[in-house]
Design a protein that fits this description.
α3 runs antiparallel to α8, α5 packs parallel to α7 and α6 packs antiparallel against α11. By secondary structure, the protein is an all-alpha fold. The N terminus is likely disordered.
């Protein structure tokens, strides 16, 4: 080899060593934002699992009645829980936007743990009342905040288009927790006692606190308003001035109000299936929802969020009406919301895209507040219809309310096509 060739070879080796290997290392090693995405998605998944792993769920009313000695008192506690959640909804959303997503999540976990300690230690109505108010506050702290935390985490990494896939994965853990906790709670209640089941349910809430402490805070984007009232006013104006966001907020509220059918559906199913099969029906429903959440990212990637929401709502409406108009032994399988998981993630995706970065959690809380108000009205109206004309008529009335969401979802789809085409 000549000296000239040897010199060229040395230059090539030095260039390869200086420039050739570093790009390959940077591709294989994720940056800080990507690591935060992986960490927060994993922790949010476990947070949702532990948060909804409540073994007392199917027997909550029975336990309240056992402690208070009255089913009327037990029902009033459930009503107070919903009212307290609605009352705290907007203030906690503003708190999340102005202070910290992570801090709000931790606060909710601590308050929820305190609520469960109250349930386990209650000997009368007073402590149970305080506990349901605390649970309402914790639910409000998480509402709007946790989805915003996930979206902001992805936004910081420039990966917000992956929100449907990660949100589906995170929210699917709710369903698997409900599906597992219900039968385990029933067995433990039979073997031990109601109080033992409630006491054991404190443990997952403690784990929630530990998981929340490990969450990383995404970067806050944009300047904040001067005070909380100005911030709230800015969020309200943002919803009012954005036609797509107005329609999606209404769709979200209507979909949530139609979930009041879950209170009456067991009475319909009990007329078709034996009582022992009701637990299997609930588990089947949670299992279907789990699958829907898991595949939602793939479905939305193929069809788009707006089309997924529209077709999901249309499918659910047709399936429920068929199940109710001509009841058969197969009706319980159709009843409910077979497309619930995919429709919910599509709805969340469309909302998060329209929310502003500064008021994301506040706007989400306002949508939840409207949904809670409609839920209460629809549930009350459905109860009156059930007393007068029966369960089937009440469930059909709820479906009539859900139908209002279809033209709104169609408009959202039309808007999405205009924006992309």
């Amino acid at each position: 080899m000549s000296a000239r060739h040897f010199s060229l070879l040395c230059v090539r080796v030095l260039v390869a060593a200086r420039f050739g290997r570093k790009p390959r290392r940077s591709k294989s090693a994720p940056n800080c934002a990507d690591q935060t995405v992986n960490r927060n998605v994993r922790l949010l998944s476990w947070f949702n699992f532990f948060g909804d792993f409540r073994m007392y769920g199917p027997i909550m009313v029975v336990y309240f009645a056992h402690v208070t000695g009255s089913y009327t008192a037990a029902a009033s506690l459930l009503a107070v829980k919903m009212l307290s959640s609605a009352a705290f909804e907007v203030p906690t959303g503003v708190l999340s936007d102005r202070l910290s997503r992570r801090g709000t999540m931790i606060a909710g976990a601590v308050v929820m743990m305190a609520a469960h300690l109250g349930y386990a230690g209650a000997s009368g109505y007073g402590l149970l009342l305080a506990a349901v108010v605390l649970e309402g506050l914790a639910s409000a702290l998480w509402s709007g905040n946790n989805e915003s935390l996930l979206y902001d985490t992805l936004l910081e990494a420039g990966r917000e288009q992956e929100f449907p896939r990660h949100s589906g994965r995170v929210n699917s853990m709710f369903q698997i927790a409900l599906a597992l906790a219900a039968p385990i709670g029933g067995v433990l209640a039979s073997a031990w006692s109601l109080h033992a089941v409630v006491a054991l349910s404190v443990v997952p809430q403690v784990l929630c606190v530990l998981v929340a402490l490990r969450i990383r805070e995404p970067r806050v984007r944009g300047p904040l308003e001067s005070n909380m009232l100005v911030h709230l006013g800015s969020a309200l104006r943002g919803i009012r001035r954005n036609p797509a966001l107005r329609r999606m907020t209404l769709v979200s509220a209507l979909r949530y109000s139609s979930e009041s059918a879950a209170q009456l559906s067991p009475a319909f199913v009990a007329g078709l299936w034996p009582l022992w099969a009701l637990g299997l029906w609930r588990t089947f429903g949670h299992g279907v929802a789990f699958v829907g959440f898991r595949v939602s990212g793939w479905v939305i990637g193929r069809m788009g969020a707006a089309r997924t929401l529209l077709f999901g709502e249309l499918f659910d409406t047709v399936a429920n009406v068929v199940a109710l108009v001509k009841p058969t032994i197969f009706s319980p399988v159709l009843l409910g919301s077979p497309a619930y998981g995919t429709s919910t993630i599509a709805q969340q995706t469309l909302l998060q895209r329209e929310f502003t970065d500064r008021e994301r959690a506040t706007m989400g809380s306002l949508a939840s507040l409207l949904g809670s108000a409609l839920y209460a009205l629809v549930a009350l109206g459905a109860g009156l219809v059930a007393d007068r004309w029966g369960i089937v008529a009440a469930l059909l009335a709820i479906q009539a309310v859900a139908l209002i969401a279809l033209p709104l979802a169609w408009r959202v789809r039309a808007h999405a096509r205009t924006m992309t085409g």
